[in-house]
Specification:
Elements lengths: L1 H15 L12 E10 L3 E7 L2 E2 L2 E2 L1 E8 L2 E13 L2 E22 L9 E26 L4 E25 L8 E26 L4 E18 L2 E19 L1
Antiparallel strand pairs: 1-6, 1-12, 2-5, 3-4, 5-7, 6-7, 7-8, 8-9, 9-10, 10-11, 11-12
């Protein structure tokens, strides 16, 4: 639903721009300061195989990074007529839970794993992105401006991953109870892309407000035991805030 909403708004912005395509953008530069909301929830699965009691355990974790607020600041310059170039930076932080299902070895017998499951809490996700944007700006009226932009993005992500489960157990140890997880923080960076549309209203010559919708994406890869975990970064986002023109 969020992705369809994004493409609908982008199509409306593109359709509206020919109405005043003959109007040249006269500003020399711009600055945007936004509060944003990351709409897209990110889900992924991971598996770890720690050695417990001399035997490999299996710890399967289903992660879900929910929608989250953040901020976005950017600016750029006009190059020629309605064409400009700019850069913006965005960031959000979210602490989430994850569903954990594990097979934990028996302390006395091999091949007699015990099933343990529970919810891990306090797993943190930090996502920072820098977006390079080619911008086509249309002055729709004297006060309204419509911008369509796109380009490459650089993402940096830090993510807590589950390495092992903590359990409580008592003799004869045939069963175990989930008591938490052991986690570690991994980080990585990747090149992706961004595309979006912005609508601004200038209530004074150099000052206004606006809102934009943007879709960004990159595919991150994190080490997870002997495997590599693929995780999406970015997604659909809405932002609104201050618009400055120079």
């Amino acid at each position: 639903m969020h992705r369809g909403f994004f493409w609908t708004l982008l199509a409306l912005a593109v359709a509206a721009s020919p109405a005043r395509a003959q109007s040249a953008w006269s500003d020399r530069a711009y600055v945007d300061v936004n509060a944003m909301y990351q709409l897209t929830a990110t889900t992924f699965d991971g598996s770890a195989h720690p050695i417990d009691f001399g035997e490999a355990a299996t710890v399967d974790t289903s992660y879900r990074v929910k929608a989250a607020p953040g901020f976005d600041v950017g600016g750029g310059v006009r190059l020629w007529r309605n064409l400009g170039i700019g850069v913006s930076g965005s960031r959000f932080t979210k602490t989430n839970g994850a569903a954990v299902d594990a097979q934990v070895p028996h302390p006395f017998y091999f091949n007699r794993a015990r099933s343990v499951s529970g919810d891990a809490s306090g797993l943190k996700r930090e996502e920072t992105a820098v977006h390079l944007r080619a911008l086509w700006m249309i002055p729709a009226t004297e006060r309204w401006q419509i911008g369509v932009s796109g380009g490459p993005s650089w993402f940096s992500v830090r993510q807590d991953l589950v390495d092992d489960v903590k359990i409580t157990q008592s003799y004869p140890y045939d069963t175990a109870t989930f008591a938490g997880v052991a986690s570690r923080r991994v980080s990585g960076s990747r090149i992706g892309f961004n595309a979006g549309a912005d609508v601004s209203y200038l209530f004074a010559r150099h000052v206004g407000v606006g809102a934009d919708v943007r879709f960004t994406r990159a595919r991150m890869r994190f080490p997870s035991g002997s495997d590599t975990l693929s995780v999406d970064a970015g997604g659909a986002r809405l932002a609104a805030g201050l618009r400055l023109r120079f």
